[in-house]
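To make this tangible, this section ends with a sequence with its structure tokens:
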Amino acid sequence: MSEIIAHHGLLTDIDLHVDDTGGTGRPVVLIHGWPLSGESWAHQVPALEAAGYRVVTYDRRGFGRSDKPRTGYEYDTFSNDLEAVLEALDLRDVTLVGFSMGGGEVARYLTRHGADRVHSVVFAAAVPPYLAQTDDNPEGPLDDATANGMKQGLKDDEKAFYHQFTTDFFSVDGTLAVSEADRAEAERLANQADHHAALKSMEAFATTDFREDLPNVTVPTLVIHGDSDTTVPFEGSGKRTHEAIAGSELHVVAGAPHGVNVSHADEFNRVLIDFLKR
């Protein structure tokens, strides 16, 4: 593990915590969801490493073991942080895998930094193209009442909110689709998040419009999503992302909740590795 300095101007350098398996295999960078950390990829890292890939995870600013500054919780900065990781490790021919909120980094990265370092990308249960339900985005799955309820719940009682959020994250029809240990581990990671960072990042993933970013995704693309995801519903997100990216592949995981990389880890890993081999 290491710390990578992300440079964003005078007096704004921050340390990002990075875990890198090393080796000579083609690099795969796993970008975590909200409000977790790079540790949330524990079911993927060993499988990818065993398949011969160099696997890099990092904690988003404000989360996990990374610095927790007061600013920078919007997608231009998040994508610049991702570029800082790729530059510091000199990663090329990389596959970017963005889970949930992390899918926004993937889309915005290609707009801001291009595809010179990128071999392919994966949107996993990801928030693009645009979560917010607005007059010009009626298919957005996140209405104002739900968004405001989440924000208020996090403000009122952070620990209770994370307990319920991680329960919903891994549930289908009110029943956990993972072990209680897996759910509790996600809650532990959520509780490492800075409160201010969590609120600002929630606002970012809920309100950022990626519709103009998706045409810039011109590398091979996989969209993988659970059909029972109630946190980021497939019809309003993964389905639309697949339709917006020419030539993208789609894999829908039957009976999977939002946390598909844990609940259906074997299927998720198989589909991901099959895509990486192409």
